[in-house]
């Protein structure tokens, strides 16, 4: 038996906010509707997929995201849109069809497997979650408790035998809350398969953030990198730390401005991205970096974070030296780092410590710094 899928993307979705309908807004790097397209195309049992879009708006659906599916214009109501989608299919009476809302992007192949298996013994099937919250109805300014026994949150896709759902929808003469309602009226045997929070529907603006958390792939985990840098003292009147000139009786030797703090932070970012170290990206042998402002290095590391679908979430720097005193300048260093990174000051930690007279820093031969950078995935990660 052949299997077809209909993705209904014909609504205006005003309650979700935004300038575009919710199915066209981006979620983790792709349009909402494209998540369902990808799920059906990935399933080996699905032979054809139809995307039902608003009349006259096919140009809004980028070929990049709908490759492999056929576009069909919808109607004035959801039921009419589904009927248009059914009419476009090349199915026989005994074949099967899955009807899905484009605003439910969390579809997985396992959900499709369960629905198709249920059709072996039933006329229709749909994923459902048992209602676990207390239910109340407000009427005439008063709250009334609604018993939740035997109540379900029914989701999509909803699965049918082709002839059954097409006949039921054509016979329906009242508005339907979903496609299942059409066959319910005809006494169909309906199976409820295991529903999932991933199959929740995007309806309001806050639903996008909730769905991002549900769909974020395991590989898109928080990434952490560490960095360490050392520079020797040389004759001078100041040192540069985190973009700030701090008066001192010596300077720091280096091919660039020798900003030991930002060098360590830049290295930590490269480490979190597994992109080597500072010297790989800015070789000290290259004369173009002579005397360079280390903000250039840090800005490039930040660009690479964005390009790889992450954002700098927080950072922690420790300056290691006997002198100069860092604490009087710490807020200025935090402010300058915030300006370059775009982080709020409460996500930047800058500390200083000594080595109690031990080692090269204890002998006042130079300064060291270590840093930790925390990167979090952004919606562009899965684009």
On the 0 to 100 scale, the average pLDDT is 91
- Name of the top-level CATH class of the largest domain: Alpha Beta
Fourth-tier CATH superfamily name of the largest domain: Spore Coat Polysaccharide Biosynthesis Protein SpsA, Chain A
- Spatial extent as radius of gyration: 30 Å
Spans of at least 5 consecutive residues with low confidence? 379-383
As a percent range, the share of strand residues is 25-35%
Describe this structure in words.
- This protein is α/β, with parallel strands linked by helices and 383 residues long.
- It has two domains: 3-215, Spore Coat Polysaccharide Biosynthesis Protein SpsA, Chain A, CATH 3.90.550.10; 223-382, 2-Layer Sandwich (60s Ribosomal Protein L30, Chain: A).
- It has twelve helices and 19 strands.
- It has helices at residues 32-42, 63-66, 78-87, 109-118, 162-171, 180-184, 206-215, 260-272, 278-281, 294-307, 330-341, 359-362; strands spanning 3-8, 26-27, 30-31, 48-53, 70-73, 96-101, 124-130, 135-139, 142-146, 152-154, 158-161, 190-194, 223-234, 238-241, 244-247, 251-252, 310-320, 348-353, 366-377.
- The strands form five sheets. Strands 1, 4, 5, 6, 7, 10, 11 and 12 form an eight-stranded mixed beta sheet that branches.
- It is elongated, with a radius of gyration of 30 Å.
- The relative contact order is 0.12.
- The model is unreliable at 379-383 (pLDDT under 50).
């Amino acid at each position: 038996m052949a299997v077809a899928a209909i993705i209904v993307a014909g609504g205006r979705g005003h309650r979700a906010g935004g300038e575009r309908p919710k199915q066209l807004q981006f979620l983790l790097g792709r349009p909402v509707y494209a998540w369902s397209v990808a799920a059906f195309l990935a399933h080996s049992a699905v032979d054809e997929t139809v995307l039902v879009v608003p009349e006259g708006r096919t140009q809004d659906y980028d070929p990049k995201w709908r490759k492999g599916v056929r576009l069909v214009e919808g109607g004035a109501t959801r039921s009419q849109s589904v009927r248009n989608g059914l009419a476009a299919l090349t199915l026989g009476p005994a074949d099967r069809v899955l009807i899905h809302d484009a605003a439910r992007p969390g579809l997985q192949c396992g959900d499709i497997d369960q629905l198709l298996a249920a059709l072996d013994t039933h006329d229709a099937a749909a994923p459902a979650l048992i209602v676990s919250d207390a239910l109340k109805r407000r009427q005439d300014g008063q709250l009334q408790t609604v018993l939740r026994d035997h109540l379900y949150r029914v989701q999509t896709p909803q699965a049918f035998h082709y002839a059954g759902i097409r006949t039921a929808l054509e016979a329906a003469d009242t508005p339907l809350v979903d496609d299942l309602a059409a066959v319910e009226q005809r006494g169909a045997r309906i199976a409820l398969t295991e529903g999932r929070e991933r199959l929740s529907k995007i309806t309001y603006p806050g639903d996008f953030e909730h769905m991002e958390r549900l769909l974020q792939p395991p590989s898109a985990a928080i990434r952490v990198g560490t960095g360490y840098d050392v520079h020797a003292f040389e004759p001078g009147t100041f040192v540069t730390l985190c973009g700030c000139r701090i008066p001192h009786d010596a300077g720091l030797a280096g091919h660039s401005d020798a900003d030991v703090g930002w060098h360590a932070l830049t290295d930590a970012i490269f480490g979190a991205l597994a992109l080597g170290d500072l010297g790989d990206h800015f070789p000290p042998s290259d004369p173009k970096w002579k005397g360079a402002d280390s903000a250039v290095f840090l800005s490039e590391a930040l660009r690479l974070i964005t390009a790889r679908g992450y954002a700098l979430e927080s950072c922690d720097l420790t300056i290691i030296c006997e002198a100069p005193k860092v604490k009087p300048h710490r807020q200025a260093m935090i402010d300058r780092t915030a300006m370059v990174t775009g982080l709020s000051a409460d996500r930047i930690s800058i500390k200083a410590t000594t080595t109690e007279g031990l080692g090269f820093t204890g002998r006042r031969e130079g300064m060291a710094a270590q840093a930790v950078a925390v990167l979090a995935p952004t919606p562009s990660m899965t684009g």
